[in-house]
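Why this split exists: single-chain examples teach little about how molecules sit against one another. For that reason, every record in the complexes split bundles all components of an assembly together and asks for one structure covering all of them. Below is a record exactly as it appears in the raw files.
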Amino acid sequence: MAYLDNIFFVILLALGGGYFAMNVKKLIRNIKLGRDINRTDNPSARWHNMALIALGQSKMVRRPVAGILHIFVYVGFVIINIEVLEIVIDGIFGTHRVFSFLGGFYSFLIGSFEILALLVIVAVVTFLIRRNIVKLKRFIHSDLKGWPKSDANYILYIETVLMVFFLVMNAADYHLQLLGFGDYHHAGAFPISQFIQPIFNGMDSGVVMMIERAVWWMHIIGILFFLNYLYYSKHLHILLAFPNTWYADLNPKGQFDNLESVTNEVKLMMDPNADPFAAAPPADENAVPQKFGAQDVQDLNWVQLMNAYTCTECGRCTSSCPANITGKKLSPRKIMMDTRDRLEEVGRNIDANKGVFVPDNKTLLNDYITPEELWACTSCNACVEECPVNISPLSIIIDMRRYLVMEQSAAPMSLNAMMTNVENNGAPWQYSQQDRLNWKNEN
Amino acid sequence: MENLTVPTMAEMLATGQQPEVLFWVGCAGSFDDRAKKITKAFVRILNRAGVSFAVLGTEESCTGDPAKRAGNEFLFQMQAMMNIEVLNAYEAKKIVTACPHCFNTLKNEYPQLGGQYEVIHHTQFLKSLLDEGRLTIEGGQFKGKKITFHDPCYLGRANNIYEAPRDLIEKLDAELVEMKRSKANGLCCGAGGAQMFKDAEPGNKEVNIERTEDALETQPQIIAAACPFCNTMMTDGVKAKEREADVKVMDVAELIANAQDL
Ligand code: SF4
Ligand code: SF4
């Protein structure tokens, strides 16, 4: 009977970990639905980016209030997880505060966890106020209607509750330590929970112990729940921010990729010696010719799909987007959220059809993102510059424009006129190329 | 008629010369009435500094930038490869241009297609002339004037060039005032991504008006630009705000040329 707790704990851990592993597998499968792209050049610059932007949060502090509070939550979250390690070991082996042999250092650890926990609570409460009372524009934007809005609030609630559990657990523990009750030997320092501890004064020690145990269990259950909540939430960024910054585009932001499939065709067209009939037979007879541009999530590359899962829905991109600022429908955040939603839909379709995607007459283009949104972009890169986790909504916009123009010839009339001019007379306006130097002699 | 010396690459080749730098004029610089003035101002400075340069003239063609941003990769690559053929035939090494869109495309998107050149923006080139002592700038009429600089997206965020144009403005002994959104946080003028060639989508404001308001907030006498398209957008914005009598929109090259009474 003595081992019942431990067995139960191990089962719980296995369930929580197992379900999480399953979702991670699904996540990776979905991201791999994207086209291949090589983003492994210059690894030292990539490690540098990851260290600076994901680990060092360098882009967060461009908006100082949110940035600093976010660092509290982030540091708090990462560091307090050292405590989770202790909880897991205690849970499995039935020990109590197994790391307490570290003595003074242990006190230092627990003490700093407590201070961090308090800072996390302060930050999270401020975030709740910014979202729900101050109602910052980017948080009440129409992009966030429904689940995304609740999701953001749920995360903040869960974080508060977890931190409160942690502090109450320590308070009860400390109380029992003071009484020298049972296994509760002196361990740790409790700079914050010492102020909670007095609420247990006069309470039966057995009851306090039950409270301590209950909160201990709820704390670890809460963490396992949180872990499994990630996949369904914008909170996935706490994991994906790292690979996402590593694999981000290192080229100057103005550089758009040159489609290789197009290069081959253009070279053939321009080469006077090319035999049009011998024109490159497809290496594989059954190869599906690659679409130009992107109509659906499978036409995007895997980094763009990872971008979609990484998006924190913070709306920094949208709040700096000239199109959105001036009331156009385009919102770069929505581009990312739509991409993720569609990717999830495709993933569910694959799950329901034994591993193959059955066409559902829907596409990212039109069913999620409309041409009107795509054509409003000025390609100004403000969204890319702003994004704290190096996402490029712009690259998706351009790939979808490519599909509209090259596969569907569906550019706005005025752009078609511009392109006809470029094609015929080498300028976007109707001037003859022969007149290009006339300015020299004009007054 | 003023006396501009504008040799073409063909003329240079005929006399067996290779210029120090090829001046890529661009479509706006060649055809747009406002932008042609910028082109000429830049040429005047080049002439004054005795820079050996040449243009492609009628052999130049659109870089393909607007087509690429509109999504027409075919047209872009056709333009690119044609231009690269011409540039390579002349063995061009160094290219300067007053258009950030041409600059970005030539510098970043041509190399993979076989066009490898050293490409610089005219503000960088002017700065280097200055640093090398080949050009001297005096404030002249701009001394003490309040000038704000609008960062072109394709120069700033796209290529991280923020300082060259500012250094030049400061050399005029002018008071450089920054808008609340500037440098990496600068707001687009609304022309990029082929928007210049189409109507805006429905919204509640034009982007150039929003940006002109940013600029006017600094109470400038001059709004400095470094891109022919930004110039047009800001000029239209100033007109719409009925401020053209007291606020001028000028390219950095024009500021320098005018300061020297060129
Ligand atoms: S690049 Fe396009 S989507 Fe991004 S901020 Fe600029 S206009 Fe908006
Ligand atoms: S794309 Fe980046 S900036 Fe935009 S909402 Fe997502 S995380 Fe925030």
